[in-house]
Amino acid sequence: MSTRDLRAAFAAAAADGRAALVPYLVCGHPDADTTVHLVLEAAAAGADVIELGVPFSDPLADGETIRNATRVALDAGMSVAGCLDVVRRVRAAGATLPIVLMGYVNPLARYGVERFCADAAAAGVDGLIVPDMPLEESGELLAAAGSVELGVTFLVTPVTGGARIAQLAAASTGFLYCVATTGTTGARADVASSTVELLDRVRNLAGDTPFAVGFGVSTPEHVAELAPHADGVIVGSALVALVERDAASLAGRIGELVAATAVVGVR
Amino acid sequence: MTDHLDTFRLDAAPMPDAHGRFGDYGGSWIPEVLVPVAGRIVEGWSAARTDPAFLQEFVGMCRSFVGRPTPLQVAPRLTAHAGGAQLLLKREDLAHTGAHKINNALGQVLLARRLGVKRVIAETGAGQHGVATATACALLDMPCVVYMGSHDIERQHPNVLRMELLGAEVRPVDEGQRTLTDAVSAAIRDWVADPDGTYYLLGSAVGMHPFPTMVRDLQSVIGHEARAQSLELLGGELPSVVVACVGGGSNAIGTFMPFAGDGAVELRGAEAAGDGIDTPRHSASVAAGSIGVLHGARTMLIQDDDGQVLPTHSISAGLDYPGVGPEHAQLAATGRATYTGVTDDEAMAALQLTCRLEGIIPAVESAHAISLALDIAAGRPASDTVLVTVSGRGDKDLATIMQYRAAHGVTSMNFADAGDDHHPAPGAPHVYA
Q1: Nearest to residue B58, comparing CAs of B124, B132, B21, B109?
Q2: Which of B29, B123, B191, B309 to mutate to test the interface with A (most CBs of A within 10 A)?
Q3: Closest partner residue to B32 among A63, A79, A154, by Cβ?
Q4: Where does the pLDDT of residue B155 fall: very low under 50, low under 70, confident under 90, or very high at 90 and above?
Q5: Which CATH superfamily is domain A3-259 in?
Q6: How many CB atoms neighbour CB A153 within 10 A?
Q7: Active site residue A62
Q8: Which residue of A has its CA nearest to B173?
Q9: Which of A41, A62, A119, A126 is catalytic?
Q10: Using one digit for the tens of pLDDT, what is the confidence trace for B339-349?
Q11: Residue B267 has pLDDT above 60, yes or no
């Protein structure tokens, strides 16, 4: 498991004429056993990469759906070590798709950045997203992640300038995360025209770093609209809400989302 | 005759390094969406703090609108009660809107206007920062939204009415503990939705660079005046000890910094110990926390072993916050300042004493500082002087005080230890009739 596998997953989807589908789930929502089960189902349904949120008490970048799921996970006892255990169990059950952890900096720092990277890599994690760690503060994480071949993902947004997009793409050893709109995570009704403009700008600036789009991407229609403009599409809050409502239908929904990633003939 | 404001400077203390760090603390741990706007605020403040025209406008408003300088007075009966060092009170409760928060709010709305934003948002705990922001926005014609935890809305209701009267929209925050930290998070989420058009007016010396620096620079007007007034009042001498309460720590950093170069002056922060630092119910981040990252800064934080921020408690909404300004964390690490927990009960006792002995109803927050100052004064000779900042007035706290009285029974609120023979015997209920 490594940066290489993460990049290979995007390359394989592209070779397939698709954008990679990256479902996001809150690790431990509603409990650890369910997360293990859902990740295996998502993999079987064709997800290319899984993003697991490491619960934090004060998730600044998240909207209400993920905040509530986070609270449920924490109340059920989920922790940083618990997230690594979930990944170990998923690997033991045979899942080979790349797994990326998204976690706020404080729990990671408390665990110890170097120790966290080593334990995460050993557990079978391929990459990390730390949404409140800007490039300027990332030296320690990049070094620790690099030494165990964990990919690090930085984020760009509609207000990020061109030079900085290039800088963040170059610094991303995993994939680059394009935040579709300003604001927090959460399902939205439509894809903003500015999102496509952002992705087309990123396409010209990202070099060979694969990039995925997320925040507000909710339906197969959204995925179909964005897939031609990105290497990957991340669906988070809409799936977290589905886990809350009807976890048994998650695999079917992921299948629909994967089907919507086809971009044959567009690129 | 000078009023001391003519010698005030916003750039008296240095900016931290380019990353906004004070030693190991501070920095800018923010989502990428805020990186451009944080950069603009850093540039904007770096320019404004050294711009004579900006300083002149700020100082002019301090004089004409805030009523600065606020007095520094001897507290004769509290001094007698403590039975040791002389106590001096820096009367920020006499600033317009009733607390020091107006110093920061006016300065930052002036900056927001310079940056050309369309609206101002703020968080508030006790409501004093919300009122100050609503006031400054009314004065400078800026739309204003204030986020406030619904628990704080209950315990600080008069300030909610004040904000609404001043034209601000108060948005209740119903998450987490429904207190200050949840209001900060809600305000930051609003900000990330429109970082280009919105100015987030942070009320304490916390958060990402440059807020801890900017709030310190603006609130340093407190310590600047207090230092000059001390020299006058004490015949060229400085106080032996300077005391202020610390939640996020804005009145404290503003009080401390102008004395930071005076090595002989002890700097003492009073944190909220709630039910006691040895219980889970307190807000004493420096005294009982550990290093962590919250709301954009690396600082001292009340958290568990997994790095989850823990619930906090203080009777004072304004001190009920799990973090602390990063420069305080640094002052504590270097030993330049020390931080001591003051319990709810100790603060309420000091509040009662200050009412009855000095005719001043201090804010519950400020009462924490007064309690610590009384303790310090009691252990020192009469030749020493302890200066304490009364950060705000307590009118907003009447509901809290009534509740505390009800919960503890009227008889426990006696003034027997006030050392004042005009008072009835301990426990006499008619005092409160």
Answers
A1: B109
A2: B29
A3: A154
A4: confident
A5: Aldolase class I (3.20.20.70)
A6: 25
A7: yes
A8: A64
A9: A62
A10: 999 999 999 99
A11: yes
* pLDDT tens digit sequence for B282-323: 999 999 999 999 999 999 999 999 999 999 999 998 999 999
Predicted structure pTM score:
0.94
Q: What tokens does B171 get?
A: 């948005």
CB-CB under 8 Å, A107 with B36: no
Alpha-carbon dihedral angle through residues A238, A228, A170, A167, given to the nearest 10 degrees: -80
Portion of chain A with pLDDT greater than 90, in percent: 90
Whether A167 contacts chain B with CB within 8 A: no
Rg, C-alpha atoms of chain A: 17
B-contacting residues in A 1-30 (Cβ below 8 Å): none
Please state the three-class secondary structure of chain A as a single string.
CCHHHHHHHHHHHHHCCECEEEEEEECCCCCHHHHHHHHHHHHHCCCCCEEEEECCCCCCCCCHHHHHHHHHHHHCCCCHHHHHHHHHHHHHCCCCCCEEEEECHHHHHHHCHHHHHHHHHHHCCCEEECCCCCHHHCHHHHHHHHHCCCEEECEECCCCCHHHHHHHHHHCCCCEEEECCCCCCCCCCCCCHHHHHHHHHHHHHCCCCCEEEECCCCCHHHHHHHHHHCCEEEECHHHHHHHHHHHHHHHHHHHHHHHCCECCCCC
List of chain B residues whose C-beta atoms are within 8 Å of the C-beta of residue A113: none
Pick the CATH number of B72-97+220-411 from 3.40.50.720, 3.40.50.1000, 3.40.50.1100, 3.40.50.620: 3.40.50.1100
Question: Domain segments of chain B: what residues?
Answer: 20-67+100-212, 72-97+220-411
For residue A106, give the nearest of B31, B185, B292 by CB distance. B292
Interface size A-B, in CB pairs within 8 Å, comes to: 104
Q: Where are the domains of chain A?
A: 3-259
Q: Chain A contacts of B19, Cβ < 8 Å?
A: 136-137
CATH fold, domain B20-67+100-212, is Rossmann fold (3.40.50)
Phi first, then psi: give them for residue A177, nearest 5 degrees: -105, 120
User: In whole angstroms, how large is the CA radius of gyration of chain B?
Assistant: 20
Answer whether B20-67+100-212 and B72-97+220-411 agree in fold. yes
Measured CA to CA, the distance from residue B10 to residue B45 in angstroms comes to 10
